[in-house]
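Morning F.,

Quick status update on the modeling queue. The single chain you submitted on Monday has been processed. Sequence for confirmation:
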Amino acid sequence: MHKKFILSQLLLFICLISFSQSNIGLIDDPDGFVNIRLHKSSKSKILGVVKKDEYFSYFPNKDSNWWPIETEKGLVGYMHKSRIKFSQKGYIHNGKLHDETLLFQIKEYDFHNLAIQIIQFKPTKTFYYFNCKSRIRIIQNNQIKNEINYNEIEAVGGAHGVLAPEKQPSNQVFILSKFGDYNGQIIVINKDEKVLTFNGGSYFITKNKKYLVSNWDSDLSGISIYNLETNKLVFEEELEEYLNDWYSYNNQYFCTVSNDIEKTSKIYQLDFENLTLLKSKLKKPIGEKITWTNNNCSCD
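C-alpha coordinates below.
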Protein backbone atom coordinates (compact mmCIF):
# COMPACT_ATOMS: atom_id res chain seq x y z
CA MET A 1 0.00 0.00 0.00
CA HIS A 2 2.83 2.35 0.89
CA LYS A 3 4.66 1.63 -2.36
CA LYS A 4 1.46 2.19 -4.33
CA PHE A 5 0.95 5.57 -2.71
CA ILE A 6 4.50 6.66 -3.52
CA LEU A 7 4.00 5.61 -7.13
CA SER A 8 0.79 7.65 -7.37
CA GLN A 9 2.67 10.73 -6.16
CA LEU A 10 5.43 10.27 -8.72
CA LEU A 11 2.91 9.61 -11.50
CA LEU A 12 0.38 12.13 -10.28
CA PHE A 13 -0.61 13.29 -13.75
CA ILE A 14 -2.77 10.52 -15.21
CA CYS A 15 -4.79 11.87 -18.12
CA LEU A 16 -4.46 14.47 -20.82
CA ILE A 17 -6.48 15.62 -23.77
CA SER A 18 -4.20 18.00 -25.63
CA PHE A 19 -5.48 21.13 -27.27
CA SER A 20 -8.10 20.42 -29.95
CA GLN A 21 -9.95 23.00 -32.01
CA SER A 22 -13.62 23.77 -31.55
CA ASN A 23 -16.52 22.93 -33.83
CA ILE A 24 -20.23 23.58 -33.45
CA GLY A 25 -22.53 20.61 -33.66
CA LEU A 26 -25.97 19.10 -33.19
CA ILE A 27 -26.88 15.68 -31.85
CA ASP A 28 -27.49 12.76 -34.19
CA ASP A 29 -29.78 10.39 -32.28
CA PRO A 30 -33.24 9.00 -33.05
CA ASP A 31 -34.30 9.39 -29.40
CA GLY A 32 -34.03 13.18 -29.68
CA PHE A 33 -31.52 13.60 -26.85
CA VAL A 34 -27.99 12.51 -25.89
CA ASN A 35 -26.49 12.24 -22.40
CA ILE A 36 -23.46 14.26 -21.34
CA ARG A 37 -21.04 12.16 -19.29
CA LEU A 38 -18.51 13.11 -16.63
CA HIS A 39 -15.88 10.74 -18.04
CA LYS A 40 -15.26 8.92 -21.31
CA SER A 41 -17.56 6.00 -20.57
CA SER A 42 -21.21 5.05 -20.94
CA LYS A 43 -21.07 4.00 -17.27
CA SER A 44 -19.94 7.44 -16.11
CA LYS A 45 -22.24 9.85 -14.30
CA ILE A 46 -24.74 11.74 -16.45
CA LEU A 47 -24.24 15.49 -16.04
CA GLY A 48 -27.07 16.56 -18.34
CA VAL A 49 -28.49 16.11 -21.81
CA VAL A 50 -28.41 17.83 -25.18
CA LYS A 51 -31.73 17.79 -27.01
CA LYS A 52 -32.58 17.88 -30.69
CA ASP A 53 -31.80 21.20 -32.44
CA GLU A 54 -29.70 22.44 -29.50
CA TYR A 55 -26.28 23.65 -30.65
CA PHE A 56 -23.15 22.89 -28.63
CA SER A 57 -19.40 23.28 -29.01
CA TYR A 58 -17.35 20.11 -29.34
CA PHE A 59 -13.68 19.26 -29.59
CA PRO A 60 -12.64 16.29 -31.80
CA ASN A 61 -9.94 14.03 -30.39
CA LYS A 62 -8.20 11.34 -32.48
CA ASP A 63 -7.24 9.36 -29.36
CA SER A 64 -10.78 8.59 -28.18
CA ASN A 65 -14.32 7.90 -29.35
CA TRP A 66 -15.56 10.21 -26.58
CA TRP A 67 -15.24 13.90 -27.35
CA PRO A 68 -15.40 16.84 -24.91
CA ILE A 69 -18.37 19.13 -25.43
CA GLU A 70 -19.65 22.37 -23.93
CA THR A 71 -23.31 23.34 -24.03
CA GLU A 72 -24.64 26.85 -24.61
CA LYS A 73 -25.07 27.17 -20.83
CA GLY A 74 -21.46 26.17 -20.14
CA LEU A 75 -21.89 22.55 -19.04
CA VAL A 76 -18.73 20.60 -19.90
CA GLY A 77 -18.60 16.81 -20.30
CA TYR A 78 -18.16 14.02 -22.81
CA MET A 79 -20.32 12.73 -25.66
CA HIS A 80 -19.71 9.72 -27.90
CA LYS A 81 -18.58 10.94 -31.32
CA SER A 82 -21.20 8.77 -33.08
CA ARG A 83 -23.89 11.03 -31.61
CA ILE A 84 -22.34 14.28 -32.89
CA LYS A 85 -23.25 15.87 -36.21
CA PHE A 86 -20.99 18.64 -37.56
CA SER A 87 -22.67 22.00 -38.16
CA GLN A 88 -19.82 24.49 -38.65
CA LYS A 89 -16.38 25.53 -37.51
CA GLY A 90 -16.53 27.87 -34.55
CA TYR A 91 -17.50 28.22 -30.92
CA ILE A 92 -20.59 29.19 -28.93
CA HIS A 93 -19.99 32.12 -26.61
CA ASN A 94 -22.71 33.62 -24.42
CA GLY A 95 -25.34 31.71 -26.37
CA LYS A 96 -24.24 33.01 -29.77
CA LEU A 97 -22.62 31.04 -32.60
CA HIS A 98 -19.29 32.48 -33.76
CA ASP A 99 -17.06 31.56 -36.70
CA GLU A 100 -13.93 32.08 -34.59
CA THR A 101 -12.54 28.96 -32.96
CA LEU A 102 -10.76 28.20 -29.72
CA LEU A 103 -8.70 25.36 -28.28
CA PHE A 104 -9.63 23.00 -25.47
CA GLN A 105 -7.43 21.10 -23.02
CA ILE A 106 -8.23 18.90 -20.03
CA LYS A 107 -5.75 17.45 -17.53
CA GLU A 108 -6.67 15.05 -14.76
CA TYR A 109 -4.61 14.25 -11.67
CA ASP A 110 -4.93 11.46 -9.14
CA PHE A 111 -4.77 12.69 -5.53
CA HIS A 112 -5.57 10.12 -2.83
CA ASN A 113 -9.23 9.18 -3.43
CA LEU A 114 -9.88 12.31 -5.52
CA ALA A 115 -9.53 13.13 -9.19
CA ILE A 116 -8.71 16.76 -9.92
CA GLN A 117 -9.43 18.11 -13.39
CA ILE A 118 -8.09 21.31 -14.93
CA ILE A 119 -10.20 22.31 -17.94
CA GLN A 120 -9.03 25.24 -20.06
CA PHE A 121 -10.32 27.04 -23.16
CA LYS A 122 -7.71 29.00 -25.09
CA PRO A 123 -8.72 31.32 -27.96
CA THR A 124 -7.05 31.13 -31.33
CA LYS A 125 -5.51 34.33 -32.68
CA THR A 126 -8.77 35.35 -34.31
CA PHE A 127 -10.90 34.79 -31.22
CA TYR A 128 -11.02 37.91 -29.06
CA TYR A 129 -13.92 37.59 -26.60
CA PHE A 130 -11.68 36.43 -23.74
CA ASN A 131 -8.06 35.36 -23.21
CA CYS A 132 -8.65 32.21 -21.19
CA LYS A 133 -11.44 30.30 -19.49
CA SER A 134 -10.47 27.83 -16.75
CA ARG A 135 -12.30 25.35 -14.57
CA ILE A 136 -11.12 23.19 -11.66
CA ARG A 137 -13.15 20.10 -10.79
CA ILE A 138 -12.78 17.97 -7.69
CA ILE A 139 -14.25 14.50 -8.30
CA GLN A 140 -14.82 11.61 -5.91
CA ASN A 141 -16.60 8.33 -6.62
CA ASN A 142 -17.84 9.57 -9.99
CA GLN A 143 -19.38 12.68 -8.39
CA ILE A 144 -18.32 16.32 -8.77
CA LYS A 145 -17.74 17.46 -5.20
CA ASN A 146 -16.64 21.00 -6.02
CA GLU A 147 -16.06 23.16 -9.07
CA ILE A 148 -14.19 26.46 -9.32
CA ASN A 149 -14.85 28.53 -12.43
CA TYR A 150 -12.80 31.38 -13.89
CA ASN A 151 -15.01 32.30 -16.82
CA GLU A 152 -13.13 35.12 -18.51
CA ILE A 153 -9.50 35.52 -17.43
CA GLU A 154 -7.74 38.57 -18.80
CA ALA A 155 -4.06 38.20 -19.79
CA VAL A 156 -2.75 40.92 -17.51
CA GLY A 157 0.12 40.66 -15.06
CA GLY A 158 2.35 38.60 -17.36
CA ALA A 159 0.58 35.21 -17.13
CA HIS A 160 -2.96 33.83 -17.29
CA GLY A 161 -4.76 30.57 -16.65
CA VAL A 162 -4.51 27.76 -14.09
CA LEU A 163 -1.42 25.61 -13.60
CA ALA A 164 -0.42 22.66 -11.41
CA PRO A 165 3.23 21.65 -10.97
CA GLU A 166 4.50 18.33 -12.30
CA LYS A 167 5.45 17.33 -8.76
CA GLN A 168 3.44 18.38 -5.71
CA PRO A 169 5.42 19.68 -2.69
CA SER A 170 3.36 17.71 -0.17
CA ASN A 171 1.36 14.48 -0.15
CA GLN A 172 -1.24 16.08 2.14
CA VAL A 173 -2.47 18.82 -0.21
CA PHE A 174 -2.80 19.48 -3.93
CA ILE A 175 -1.64 22.97 -4.94
CA LEU A 176 -2.48 25.00 -8.05
CA SER A 177 -1.78 28.55 -9.18
CA LYS A 178 -4.23 30.87 -10.93
CA PHE A 179 -2.91 33.83 -12.97
CA GLY A 180 -4.47 36.81 -14.75
CA ASP A 181 -6.95 39.60 -13.97
CA TYR A 182 -4.25 41.20 -11.74
CA ASN A 183 -5.61 38.72 -9.19
CA GLY A 184 -3.18 35.82 -8.83
CA GLN A 185 -4.15 33.06 -6.40
CA ILE A 186 -2.87 29.92 -4.73
CA ILE A 187 -5.49 27.16 -4.55
CA VAL A 188 -4.95 24.43 -1.96
CA ILE A 189 -7.09 21.27 -2.00
CA ASN A 190 -6.83 18.80 0.88
CA LYS A 191 -7.72 15.11 1.04
CA ASP A 192 -11.19 15.94 2.42
CA GLU A 193 -12.09 18.03 -0.68
CA LYS A 194 -11.81 21.29 1.27
CA VAL A 195 -10.44 24.24 -0.72
CA LEU A 196 -8.40 27.19 0.53
CA THR A 197 -7.72 30.11 -1.81
CA PHE A 198 -5.40 33.02 -1.03
CA ASN A 199 -3.38 35.72 -2.79
CA GLY A 200 -0.32 34.49 -4.68
CA GLY A 201 0.75 32.99 -7.99
CA SER A 202 4.21 31.50 -8.50
CA TYR A 203 5.79 30.13 -5.34
CA PHE A 204 8.80 28.41 -3.82
CA ILE A 205 9.15 25.83 -1.05
CA THR A 206 11.68 26.39 1.74
CA LYS A 207 14.53 23.87 1.94
CA ASN A 208 13.10 22.29 5.10
CA LYS A 209 9.88 21.60 3.14
CA LYS A 210 7.86 23.43 5.79
CA TYR A 211 6.69 26.61 4.06
CA LEU A 212 5.27 27.68 0.72
CA VAL A 213 6.14 31.31 -0.05
CA SER A 214 4.35 33.25 -2.81
CA ASN A 215 4.65 36.80 -4.10
CA TRP A 216 1.29 38.19 -5.17
CA ASP A 217 0.76 38.08 -8.94
CA SER A 218 -1.37 41.20 -8.76
CA ASP A 219 -1.53 44.96 -9.30
CA LEU A 220 -0.99 45.07 -5.54
CA SER A 221 2.22 43.97 -3.86
CA GLY A 222 2.15 41.37 -1.14
CA ILE A 223 3.35 38.05 0.19
CA SER A 224 1.62 34.90 1.44
CA ILE A 225 3.13 32.06 3.48
CA TYR A 226 1.47 28.66 3.85
CA ASN A 227 2.61 26.07 6.41
CA LEU A 228 2.75 22.67 4.70
CA GLU A 229 3.01 20.82 8.03
CA THR A 230 -0.07 22.35 9.67
CA ASN A 231 -1.85 23.00 6.35
CA LYS A 232 -2.63 26.58 7.34
CA LEU A 233 -2.11 30.03 5.85
CA VAL A 234 0.14 31.62 8.48
CA PHE A 235 1.04 34.98 6.91
CA GLU A 236 -0.57 37.22 4.28
CA GLU A 237 0.26 40.91 3.98
CA GLU A 238 -0.04 43.70 1.44
CA LEU A 239 3.18 45.71 0.95
CA GLU A 240 4.01 49.19 -0.28
CA GLU A 241 7.00 47.99 -2.32
CA TYR A 242 7.23 45.12 -4.81
CA LEU A 243 9.10 41.92 -4.04
CA ASN A 244 11.29 40.55 -6.84
CA ASP A 245 13.89 37.78 -6.75
CA TRP A 246 14.41 35.53 -3.72
CA TYR A 247 17.72 34.06 -2.51
CA SER A 248 18.51 31.39 0.09
CA TYR A 249 21.61 31.26 2.27
CA ASN A 250 22.12 29.04 5.35
CA ASN A 251 18.35 28.54 5.72
CA GLN A 252 17.76 32.28 5.51
CA TYR A 253 15.71 33.91 2.77
CA PHE A 254 16.35 37.33 1.22
CA CYS A 255 14.44 39.28 -1.42
CA THR A 256 15.23 42.22 -3.68
CA VAL A 257 12.73 45.07 -3.77
CA SER A 258 11.46 47.60 -6.32
CA ASN A 259 9.06 50.53 -6.33
CA ASP A 260 6.69 51.51 -9.14
CA ILE A 261 9.61 52.65 -11.32
CA GLU A 262 12.80 50.67 -10.65
CA LYS A 263 14.65 48.28 -8.38
CA THR A 264 15.94 49.72 -5.13
CA SER A 265 18.95 48.83 -2.99
CA LYS A 266 16.71 47.47 -0.23
CA ILE A 267 16.85 43.82 0.77
CA TYR A 268 14.15 42.16 2.83
CA GLN A 269 14.56 39.04 4.94
CA LEU A 270 11.92 36.55 6.01
CA ASP A 271 11.72 35.95 9.75
CA PHE A 272 9.98 32.59 10.02
CA GLU A 273 10.18 32.50 13.81
CA ASN A 274 8.00 35.59 14.12
CA LEU A 275 6.39 35.24 10.68
CA THR A 276 7.22 38.69 9.44
CA LEU A 277 9.21 40.45 6.71
CA LEU A 278 12.16 42.53 7.94
CA LYS A 279 14.44 45.03 6.26
CA SER A 280 17.92 43.53 6.03
CA LYS A 281 21.23 45.32 6.54
CA LEU A 282 22.54 43.71 3.36
CA LYS A 283 23.21 45.96 0.36
CA LYS A 284 22.94 43.13 -2.15
CA PRO A 285 21.50 39.61 -2.02
CA ILE A 286 23.64 36.64 -1.06
CA GLY A 287 23.28 32.92 -1.63
CA GLU A 288 21.49 30.89 -4.27
CA LYS A 289 18.82 32.48 -6.44
CA ILE A 290 15.56 30.60 -5.99
CA THR A 291 13.70 29.06 -8.93
CA TRP A 292 9.96 29.62 -8.87
CA THR A 293 7.34 26.90 -9.27
CA ASN A 294 4.46 27.62 -11.69
CA ASN A 295 6.17 30.63 -13.18
CA ASN A 296 5.09 30.31 -16.80
CA CYS A 297 1.40 29.94 -17.59
CA SER A 298 -0.39 30.91 -20.80
CA CYS A 299 -3.71 29.10 -20.39
CA ASP A 300 -1.97 25.74 -20.87
